[in-house]
Amino acid sequence: xxxxxxxxxxxxxxxxxxxxxxxxxxxxxxxxxxxxxxxxxxxxxxxxxxxxxxxxxxxxxxxxxxxxxxxxxxxxxxxxxxxxxxxxxxxxxxxxxxxxxxxxxxxxxxxxxxxxxxxxxxxxxxxxxxxxxxxxxxxxxxxxxxxxxxxxxxxxxxxxxxxxxxxxxxxxxxxxxxxxxxxxxxxxxxxxxxxxxxxxxxxxxxxxxxxxxxxxxxxxxxxxxxxxxxxxxxxxxxxxxxxxxxxxxxxxxxxxxxxxxxxxxxxxxxxxxxxxxxxxxxxxxxxxxxxxxxxxxxxxxxxxxxxxxxxxxxxxxxxxxxxxxxxxxxxxxxxxxxxxxxxxxxxxxxxxxxxxxxxxxxxxxxxxxxxxxxxxxxxxxxxxxxxxxxxxxxxxxxxxxxxxxxxxxxxxxxxxxxxxxxxxxxxxxxxxxxxxxxxxxxxxxxxxxxxxxxxxxxxxxxxxxxxxxxxxxxxxxxxxxxxxxxxxxxxxxxxxxxxxxxxxxxxxxxxxxxxxxxxxxxxxxx
Length: 526
Prior knowledge:
There is one protein chain. By secondary structure, the protein is of the alpha+beta class. The chain contains 15 helices and 11 strands. The strands form 2 sheets. Strands 4, 5, 6, 7, 8, 9, 10 and 11 form an 8-stranded antiparallel β-sheet that branches. A 3-stranded antiparallel β-sheet has the order 1-2-3, covered by helices on one side. The N and C termini lie far apart (92 Å).
């Protein structure tokens, strides 16, 4: 007798359609839990929307959730075959995401708090609907993470690589170019590689759209990963070519074109053309969607009888309540920590360095860009022919608008029209008798003056130059009840012919640190 291929499928491998009543309860329980999470973490959600609204780089955030919902709607028939059952193992992971949110919030690390918030939304799905349902819609859920405004940390690296390629291509084209940091000088013009030239907007947009394209057009994992890799590489290289092309247009036209807003328009047109070609080529390797597996369960009587369905509904509502209880714990903890937080106001006493004399600040004083400190001290001191600037910004009671470590808090902003960072790095200096790695920078003024600067953080007495370590220490200090008092210290000196700025800064740091540390400690005790 001929074997029917359909009857050869093991019955245990066939998903049996769940009772429609159970799915209605499951979706209602999930919707309630998701709304609850958004309400509990409304500040974080509102901050994300605010970034989408004011930043062209992250404007795509508005369409991420609708796209994710559309992807889930496309697979509704497949999902209907699953039996939604809560997975209690998701609750500890949900709690870990909540703790990560607390760390990000108290440490004023927006990206961590926002990533944890989206993670809690995603983890509510397996907690209520179960692992099999979550596995079936893993990509639409993972796609939600594109809503997190993340990627600006790539700006310095992308800007540096763009400048490297532009200089290389200009010289290869026979155009003489002089480079100082991110400033490029050609015979008939001066160009700056600013944040808009980094290509991060192109990269993030291409990565999101490329990932979606790969999911919809390919079925094998290697093709999907390969296309995502192309979606990362192409916008980076295209941005290099765009920057080179704009400088060349300005050079060849004697700065009549590509010098104002039109070069941004040229950039987007060029990027759009590159993306169109990339997706056209990608479509040539499109794979047909796999045929749907035969559903032998169609027409069967639903497995859940009335009493079983009622019991399952109770489990689903219980899982939703458990998710809501885990979610509310972290905003409550944050609320009580905020109530016990110190007054953000602070004072920073005078810092008198033995052997160094304070001088009046001259015109064109360099001032590091640190926003809204609780207290600040900025002095220029001199000993013999050596002159050093000391800048200390003190922070207390930090939040998302008032914090020490931020992408806006830098030695020199990229938009600064007077000062420009032409080199940066790190070195080890002796501070308080111990070796400490500090950040270094060489800064150029428009009139040709050059400064060497050292920068490091003081976090409740500990020293570091790492933004990540500083953030972690601030968060941990707040969670353990020791407050978030912290400061940035910057020392700088002019670079003159025959001078040794490194030795000058090391000597001053050695002499000044006891007075600096004492002033910081006194501010912390007040």
